[in-house]
Design goal:
single chain, 73 residues, mainly alpha, 3 helices, 84% helix, membrane, transmembrane helix, transmembrane
Length: 73
């Protein structure tokens, strides 16, 4: 059996899932900080949240690219 390949795929899946969740959560948190009226947040916080959401979207699209055979074959 090819257990090493199974462990490799499981590890890559876990790392990718954690990365997407962390990027999305960070984007939501930065959006909340940028939208808070009581705290004067720097302007770059809003743009950093957009970057987090963008990277999350790129990761999802890359995953779809890997899964759908029409695109990768």
């Amino acid at each position: 059996m090819k257990w090493l390949e199974l462990v490799t795929v499981a590890g890559a899946t876990l790392i990718a899932a954690v990365t997407v969740v962390v990027l999305y959560s960070l984007g939501v948190r930065l959006t909340a900080i940028a939208g808070d009226r009581q705290v004067a947040a720097p302007v770059w916080v809003k743009y950093l949240s957009y970057i987090c959401f963008g990277l999350c979207g790129v990761a999802v699209l890359f995953g779809l690219y890997l899964i759908i055979p029409y695109f990768s074959g």
